[in-house]
C-alpha cells in the first residue's frame, strides 16, 4: 500500500477519534460522566478503534479506488437520562462530534490559505493538510445527515414533536427495526446521493481553504 494511503487512514482514524471524544466531553459538561468512567476520554486510539469502521472498511475503500473514504470509531457511551438538559442534551452531545471536525478543518484551512499566498510548505505536506481538511469536512457533514444512526438524526429529533422525533432517534430505530436497518439507510444514502454530497463538501473545502479541491 502506498505511503499516502497509510497517512490517509491515520488522518481518518484520529479524526473519528477526536469526533467521539468531543461527544464524551459534551456529555460530561452536561452532567454525564459515563464516557470518562469507561476510559473513552483519551487520545489513546486502542479504546476507540472499531475493527470494521476504523480498519477494514477504510482499507477496502482505498484498495478498490472506491472514490470516497469513510469510517468510524466505537461510539462513546453516555446516558441521556443523566444530561441536565433533557430536551436539547442529546442534540448537543450529537452535534459536538461534527463541530469538532469542522473546528479541525477550519484550523488547518488557515494554514492552507497562508501557504497559498507565500508557498513556503512542501507540496507533500500541503497535500496531506488538504486531505485532513477534506476528510474532516466530510465526516462533519456526513454525520449531520439526519439518518439513524448518524448524529444528524439526534439533532433533527430535538427540533421535532416528540411523537415524530422518537422515530429518528437511533435507539428507537434499533428497537423497531434492528441496527442493520440504520446502516442500510446510511449506505443507500452513500450509493444514491454521493455525487451531490461530494460536490457540496468540495464547495465547502474551497470556501474554507480558498483553493479548489485537488489544486
UniProtKB/TrEMBL annotation:
Which InterPro entries does the protein's record reference? Metallopeptidase_M50B, Peptidase_M50, Rip2-like
A biological process term (GO) from this entry: proteolysis
Short name of any one Pfam family annotated for the protein: Peptidase_M50
The Peptidase M50 domain extends over 123-162
**Localization, UniProt:** Cell membrane
Q: Which UniProt keywords apply?
A: Cell membrane, Hydrolase, Membrane, Metal-binding, Metalloprotease, Protease, Transmembrane, Transmembrane helix, Zinc
Q: Which cofactor does it need?
A: Zn(2+)
Q: Does Hydrolase appear among the keywords?
A: yes
Tell me where the transmembrane regions lie.
Answer: 6-30, 51-72, 92-112, 124-146, 181-205
Record keywords: Hydrolase included? yes
Q: How does it sit in the membrane?
A: Multi-pass membrane protein
**What cellular-component terms does GO give this entry?**
plasma membrane
Q: Enumerate the GO terms in the molecular function aspect.
A: metal ion binding; metallopeptidase activity
Q: What's this protein's family per the entry?
A: Belongs to the peptidase M50B family.
Name this polypeptide is given: Peptidase M50 domain-containing protein
Species of provenance = Candidatus Lloydbacteria bacterium RIFCSPHIGHO2_02_FULL_51_22
